[in-house]
């Protein structure tokens, strides 16, 4: 059974947590004891209904304020597939949480309040979805009950969003725009007569039919080495294997590979997983690879197929989201972590900061918390990264403050 990873986003009070709670409730994924606790918590808040948003708002501050602060991961399943939903915050000051929560998503759900239409956070979250190149986008026009299920209001917001799609990553793609009321469960899991003018399918029906290539044939083959295995026993006296997770593409026994940093080549002798011999390994598989030749490979090296090798670059241009209270200024040195590698990197220049509501680039000499912009970096050693647009799995990095060890930025190689 495959797993579909979803991220929810939208402005404050657009109903993200309630939507997730409704999905869990209508798919009967809530246990009896949790349902009783939810009812009791709703009564303590003075509500005359069961507040499904409390399922995901687990922090005390979240329940007190009725907002999402941290990223919550929710798991549920249907007979067809399993789901992992990242419930991300809507406030501007938690933009960094939204970026990290959406970084592994295959579907982006952007919620819009039917009363308010497209607002600033809609632009911001749409921009982030485009930046991360999340394959599927679903726009949920929520709280239709508060506009009397007005078809004209739905059409107006749809038209506004279609304008937003022009020239973006999603132009020409199958973008679903679904009217719903998550509070009353209308058009979330089941269709409703109150939105009978909508001829599309409910949200869950669409999610159930989304397809994706789990084997990842499109992207070049990349295997970052996490650990070199040398058992100290008689049975595996000469064993030398390289453990890691295939980040993209696939590898096959007998196939030639090249080791980056030094360019040495060999052929794959075996691919093993829990003492089981495999003919091949695909994106997402954690395996041990052994080679026919004794070549110099250690933790942090990248194995690739000779036909498509990433260029080792010491100068990198990247789009980043700044995630630290202390501002970014040119000339500062950080640790750039790409896979298992940590390399010193110096910020040479801030090339521009994006105003997400207009998609315009502004010239600035510094970047503040939650700013998104482009920078140029110079690294102490070559970085074997792909362009993010070509291979997202090998095109990202983080910047780490070398003194506090805090993650200060996430970057996407251009």
> What overall geometry do the principal axes of the alpha carbons give?
globular
Could you give the distance between the termini?
35 Å
β-sheet strand percentage: 25-35%
Stretches where pLDDT is under 50 for at least 5 consecutive residues are 58-69
Q: How many separate domains make up the residues?
A: 3
Strand segment count: 22
Radius of gyration: 24 Å
Mean pLDDT equals 88
Task: Write a brief caption for the model.
With 414 residues, the protein is an alpha+beta fold.
Q: What would the keywords be for this entry?
A:
6-stranded mixed beta sheet; Elongation Factor Tu (Ef-tu), domain 3; 7 helices; globular; Rossmann fold; 3 domains; P-loop_NTPase; 22 strands; alpha+beta; 34% strand; single chain; 6-stranded antiparallel β-barrel; 414 residues
